[in-house]
Design brief:
about 280 residues; alpha/beta; D-Maltodextrin-Binding Protein, domain 2; Alpha-Beta Plaits; about 35% strand
Length: about 280
């Protein structure tokens, strides 16, 4: 039995559950109201946990696989196998000071206090800079600390910067860049092929995002022109149309971002009956 630890709430929960569902492992029976939940695979179950606890759960073997932020993995210093960047939940740990502060660089904080929920990452960052600070560990409301005299600056997670502006803070520099990762217990990974299957399933969904499958009919004498428009991942697939020898069926995978211009170019090149289809999964 493989146990996957996933965030039980917060900004990482919904996209994690959605990704796993697309990978063929939907949450069954109970959801986040319970500690555990079944999946469509009888050999795989979910463990719902705080995102901050997941790295240590995976390291200690309470879970075999986990999904959590790279910032939390680094903060705990957990010895886990990094399997895959899941390409969501991007955020930065940033150093910020009150908007009316004269401080403009981290080096100006020598001897001052910095409040954060990430004391290990913060301490390491300033040590690398050669700046001595006092790290004040807080468990929430980090943005308030400079305004109530607890700290001179903060290191906190920021996705858009809106929270900093709302709390009259200004960013000095980025301390750490993070996104969400798939991780595994090192010993379990070595001895259980199921973890490789999970990685492949999730990776296939990520590969498909931003891609579209195009199908069209193309006059035989227009094929070379169409192929220049449609290189595809490994070149387009070309097939004969049984009902008309002068027409070919052409299929290709293309980037979704350029689909508007691509379809227009294909029509000009002679393609017709163009069908654009979303792709759920792409196996490597």
């Amino acid at each position: 039995m493989i146990r996957i630890a996933i965030p039980n709430k917060g900004r990482l929960h919904d996209p994690t559950v959605s990704l796993l569902k697309e990978a063929g492992l939907p949450v069954l029976e109970g959801g986040t109201r319970k500690l555990f939940a079944k999946t469509s695979d009888p050999e795989i179950t979910y463990l719902f946990a705080r995102a901050a606890d997941i790295p240590e759960y995976v390291q200690d073997g309470a879970a075999d696989v986990g999904i959590t932020g790279l910032d939390l993995i680094n903060e705990t210093g957990s010895d886990v196998e990094i399997l895959l960047d899941l390409k969501f939940g991007s955020a930065n740990l940033v150093l910020a000071v009150p908007e009316d502060s004269p401080i403009t660089s981290a080096k100006e904080l020598e001897g001052m206090r910095v409040a954060t929920e990430f004391p290990n990452i913060t301490a390491k960052h300033f040590k690398n800079l050669g700046v001595n600070i006092e790290v004040i560990k807080v468990s929430g409301a980090c943005e308030m600390t400079p305004h109530v005299g607890i700290a001179d600056a903060i290191v906190d997670i920021s996705s858009s910067g809106t929270t900093l502006v709302t709390n009259h803070l200004k960013m000095i520099e980025k301390v750490f860049s993070s996104s969400v990762y798939l991780i595994a217990n090192k010993k379990t990974k070595e001895n259980n092929g199921k973890i490789g299957q999970i990685k492949t399933a999730v990776e296939s969904v990520l590969r498909a995002k931003g891609k579209r499958y195009l199908m069209m009919n193309v006059p035989a004498d227009s094929l070379e022109t169409v192929k220049k428009v449609l290189p595809g991942l490994a070149g387009p697939t070309v097939m004969k149309v049984e009902s008309d020898d002068s027409i070919l069926a052409v299929h290709a995978v293309v980037d979704a971002d350029g689909i508007f211009a691509t379809v227009d170019e294909l029509k000009k090149a002679g393609a017709k009956d163009i069908l654009v289809v979303p792709i759920e999964r792409m196996m490597p």
